[in-house]
Amino acid sequence: MARYVLRRLGLAVITLFILSIVVFTVSAVLPGSVGRAILGPFADKRSVDQLNNELGVNGPLVNRYFRWVSHAVRGDFGNSYKYKSPVMDFVSKALTSSLKLALLTLVIVVPLGVIGGTIAALRQGKALDRIITITGLSLAVTPEFVIGIVLILVFPVKLGWLPSGGSPKGAVLDQLKTMLLPALTLTAILFGYLSRMARAGAIEALNSDYTRTATLKGLPRHVVLRRHVMRNSLLPTIAVIASQMSYLLGGLLVTETLFNFRGLGLLVADAARGKDIPMLMGAVFIVGALAMTMSLLADLLIAWLNPRVRLGAKQ
Amino acid sequence: MSTPALEFNDLQLAYMVRGQAREVLRGVSFAVQPGETYGLVGESGCGKSTAAYTAVRYLPTNARILGGDVHLAGRDILSLDKKELQNLRANDVSIVYQDPGQALNPTIKVGLQLMEAYQLLGQSKHDALTNSREILRKVQIADPESVLGRYPHQLSGGMQQRVVIAMALACNPQLIILDEPTTGLDATVEAEVLDLIRGLRDEFGTSVLFISHNLGAIRAMCDRVGVLYAGKLVEEGRAQDVFDNPQHPYTVGLLRCLPRHGSRKSAQRLETIPGFQPLLGAPLPACVFVDRCPLATEKCRSVAPEWTQLGGRKVRCHHVDRVHELVSSALPEGTPSTVDRSSTPMLVLDGVSKTFHQGGQAIKAVRDVSLELFAGETLGLVGESGSGKTTLAHTVLGIHAPDQANTITFDGKNLKPGTRKRPADQVRGIQIIFQNPDSALNRRHSVRRIIGRSLRRLAQLPHSEVDGALQEITASVRLTERHLDMRPSQLSGGLKQRVAIARAFAGHPRIVVCDEPTSSLDVSVQAAILNLLGDLQHDRDTSYLFISHDLRVVRYLSDRIAVLYLGRIMELGPAERVFDGPHHPYTEALLSAAPSVDGDTRERIRLDGEIPSAVNQPSGCVFHTRCPRRLEGDLCSTVEPPLTPTPDGGVIRCHIPFDQLGGQPVALRS
Fold it and tell me: Does the UniProt entry include the keyword Nucleotide-binding (chain B) (predicted)?
């Protein structure tokens, strides 16, 4: 296991390094002078050059890269061009909001998906199975803006129960109210994937010889399900949750824009629109690093749950 | 008489397929008496496993009981409610099936899984642990404490099956059902597991229902046997009587399909049972076996035979008085072997080694193997799993590259490592037949396309000639025109293997590697495939590298045999000598482990422990850690014996002089 963790960590560091290069390169090759973009078309060339110098966007690429990295590792992504204050402040605020939203989504979708999938597996081929599977699939292929708009039309507009958007502020209950609709939108998208994985995992475990052994041992059904079936069927499900975490964090764009939710997605979108390069680099880098951390944690969790990986399988 | 442990009364069971009932068991009656071991034999599809799972009422949802009843320990199991059934399973009956690696939950420690069985009986955690330790000792696990703390994947196959058996014994059941408990285990391990089951049965007085396709194992284990054919019992009696003096034409045929009495391809063809077992649910003639029976008359088609009692045994046949006609019919002639040993060998291996590197460890799978294979010759490769026989065959095929280049010569030319680097004639010249034709054939292609593609790619025939060649090769593997447009899934196991054989032979190979080609097949089908392989070899002068764990099969087809252990040749010589002795102590042990259908009178030679890991190989002679004939002193543990030539042109790797090695034909003799 130690070996596996070390190898996985080493891989993570390399990925992070590649990510930093990609983010930096992309921003460096973006067309147009940064100084010109900030000062506008009527500024004279001298002040543009001076600003470029001050911003440090002139020197050789390699030097600029190392300067950026050495600051970045200390949590300093420079100042936003637009707001003239540290990028990190914006990113960390957006990150907190996005994480809250992601957490709420997971709290809703994981039990729903796992239970739904397992029930479908137990009723394989019956009506309930069909209903769960078809609902999940239909939701998964519907674009999030359609689901989001429907939700907005129903709850805030028609019924007036929940706010139609905004960022989480104030009391916990208020925050939850604000986040509920975006979280439900994301849940709708993820439920299909998750329940399908949980269903497939449960069917495999149900048909396995060890489940037969457990049943024929005379164990009560609920013990068989809890101890022998669920334990094994959750492994692939966790892998899917992990891979969907990156989606949750990085692909929040549409949902956040729709609900005007100030998270990472909206931040990236705004920064890109406003050519706010430091902001864009910082936000993208943090999103990437976070997604990677999540998949790292998921891999380690899977390994830890699976003794064959944890203890090293015999060849 | 006391209540039987298990009793089937005229049980009729069907599976519902697309709304139609397909009968699997067509009125099966038998009883397992207390303390008795009852064996059910029959080919796949005869319903023997369905019978086993009916006894514990663990049936797929589409199973329907159409009539009859099943009593276990005096209770009608078909009328029990959920709770009672659960109690019955927890207390009165246990079942052990094949592939113990799958039967244990991979994510839970062995100890917890074992304790579960005791806790179910209401025992405290502490008692359950004590009892688990005790039961592991009973199944001869030397270090129960460490096994309890391990996960299933950390145990070998034999150990896993011991754990499963321990779990089955936990509730001290009245009946244990063993469904192919040793299939997939090595012969040496199988022998140990069978010994263990026998010992435990005698100690606990448990009744056993034993199901196996391995007739030798049934003979070794059972008091009485029932022969099941197409869901009906056709013969029942004491194991000894049924095997030594079968009275139903089907039993007679089944037993004569086996290569026995040291039979060889050069002496006689194997007998087969013509035709096929009726499909599930097919409407049956009056006598279920009539379509394949050489004794059948009009009466067999109109009147279903009832049991004919023959003093302690019974047979379902109208013509019991004529069965001797079958027994005395002469076996057909075999094909004499025509190996010319003075010619240039087809294949020469000169010090071939293969080392795998994994996780910083060197796994020495094959060590310094030298051998020759002549045109038209079969070389049998024998050894336990982990002995390197498959790796060796794969190296010849070019799937693995040997450690040193230029150690393999094929038809006088150096054989390049890796199929991609080989010229077309070398690739075509060495082909393989796999164990499992299901996964070897593309299920989306028709038989015509599968064989045709090989003809175009391997034989490089132009389109115009493919059809003719296809007819010819199909005929030579005894497939008919009708089969050509079918897909593999529409064919039976034996027919699929014929397609695989046709594919391998399409490019007129000089050498065919046969990797357990018959081990997934029923005995009657196996006989037909072995005959076919013998014929093809004779007609085309093809050489075989033949791998099988069934020593009788190896003996039947092989001219010479190489015995491998930890990647080394321990012995190589003519098949008769290797089997009849003098032979290497390892060969001797291997031979004595295989249970014989003809009854065992000899003492089995026990090997201590399991085959050592290929990473940390023992010093000196690699076999010394398990050798029953290890010499006094430390010669065997320090010096690796060289391969010594034997008078018959073979070699043996042992410090004991040739004339003092085991001269007894330990097994497969009778």
Answer: yes
Q: Is residue A225 part of a domain?
A: yes
Task: Say what percent of chain A tops pLDDT 70.
Answer: 89
Which residue has better confidence, A75 or B47? B47
B104 reaches A (C-beta below 8 A): yes
- How high is the ipTM of this complex? 0.76
Please tell me the predicted confidence (pLDDT) of residue B126. 93
Strands B378-382 and B543-547: parallel
Q: Is B363 on the interface with A (CB under 8 A)?
A: yes
- Host domain of residue A57: 2-72
* Min distance A240 CA to chain B CA atoms (Å): 19
**Distance between B350 CA and the closest CA of chain A, angstroms:** 28
Q: Measuring CA to CA, how many Å separate B211 from each of A101, A235, A267, B44, B194? A: 58, 35, 68, 11, 13
Kindly determine whether residue A311 and residue B95, on different chains, have CB atoms separated by under 8 Å.
Answer: no
Q: Which residue has the tokens 């004779």?
A: B538
pLDDT exceeds 80 at position B665: no
Tokens 């004794």 belong to B295
pLDDT at B602: 62
Question: Is residue B93 within 8 Å of residue B177, measured between CB atoms?
Answer: yes
B18 touches chain A (CB under 8 A): no
Q: Closest partner residue to B58 among A208, A216, A314, by Cβ? A: A216
- Residues A163 and A234 grouped into a single domain: yes
Q: Do B358 and A315 touch (CB under 8 A)?
A: yes
Closest CA to B194 of B110, B183, A71, B205: B183
**pLDDT, tens digit, for every residue of B507-533?**
889 999 999 888 878 888 888 889 889
**pTM (two decimals):** 0.81
Would you call B151 an interface residue with chain A, using a CB distance cutoff of 8 Å?
yes
Interface of B with A in 109-138 (CB under 8 A): 116-117, 120
